[in-house]
Amino acid sequence: RLFRIAIDGPAASGKSTTAKLLAKKLGFGYIDSGAMYRAVTLKCLDQGVPITDTQKVQDIAHHAKIRFPSLGTVELDGKDVSTAIRTSRIVQNISPIASNPGVRATLANQQRSLAHANDPAWSGFKHKNTEKIRGVVMDGRDIGTVILPDAELKVFIVAEPHVRAQRRYDELKEKNSLAQGETVEAIAQDLEARDEADRTRKVSPLKKAKDAIELDTSHKTIDEQVSAIEKLVYD
Ligand code: C5P
């Protein structure tokens, strides 16, 4: 049986970076559920499917082949989209897709199946001298509440809004993915709009699970965040 760690929280709270490093340290698999919603959004935009066309968007999600071939990379229909899904164009179009019940149902099935050691996605998984996957870290908005309600450990990550905006700005800048004229203020507004949409949508809203442990990362380094969760694993 796998040890499953569910990490949820608002946008740019440090979930993905923390989850990825934690998985690496523990020798666990990492599933970035947000990347799956981003990949579906990218496919809709690329194919000219209107994001509000509920049925067409559901079909796109149903046929999208999303894989995580290595820690931190995302593949859509056999193509590496790790960078393409991180632009502001994606997040500006993602909310109607993330609140589409058919899309959520399709991705939820895939996410639950990825939380099992025998999922084909883990074939060839090799880490820390083991041939077998021992656990998974999955991050998102509804992992502890809806996707893996019986996860062995649930963490809800929060951080002050200005800290989150600055972190996202630095991250985009480092990857050369800042849109022309994009400012910290504009990013703060994008984050706020997205969190509001995530918190208030009818299906699987962003919410702290009752039994999740809250971790405020505003004044923590990445290493401190990872160690804090690692400690919970061994407690
Ligand atoms: O985590 P990330 O910022 O990449 O997620 C992008 C968007 O995908 C979120 O704002 C949210 O709308 C959606 N999402 C979701 N449920 C998840 C993960 C992400 O609705 N489990």
Task: Walk me through the structure.
- Helix content is 47%, strand content 14%.
- The chain is of the alpha/beta class and 235 residues long.
- The strands form two sheets. Strands 2-6-1-7-8 form a five-stranded parallel β-sheet. The protein has a three-stranded antiparallel β-sheet with strand order 3-4-5, with helices on one face.
- Strand 3 (66-67) and strand 4 form a beta hairpin.
- Helix 8 crosses helix 9 (184-200).
- The longest helix is centred in the last third of the chain and has 17 residues, at 184-200.
- It is globular and about 45 Å long.
- The protein binds cytidine-5'-monophosphate.
- Cytidine-5'-monophosphate binds next to helix 2, helix 5 and helix 9.
- Cytidine-5'-monophosphate binds at residues 11, 33-34, 37-38, 94-95, 98, 140-143, 194, 198.
> What integer value in Å does the Rg equal?
17 Å
What is the terminal-to-terminal distance?
18 Å
CATH superfamily: P-loop containing nucleotide triphosphate hydrolases
From the 3D coordinates, which CATH architecture would you assign?
A: 3-Layer(aba) Sandwich
Residues in helix, % = 40-55%
Instruction: Give average pLDDT, whole number.
Output: 93
For this entry, what is the oligomeric state of its chains?
single chain
Number of DSSP-assigned strands = 8
Structural class by SSE content: alpha/beta
List bound small molecules.
Answer: cytidine-5'-monophosphate
Numbering strands along the chain, what is their spatial order in the largest sheet? 2-6-1-7-8
Write down the secondary-structure element order. EHEHHEEEHHHEHEHHEH
Strand content: 5-15%
Largest sheet: 5 strands, parallel
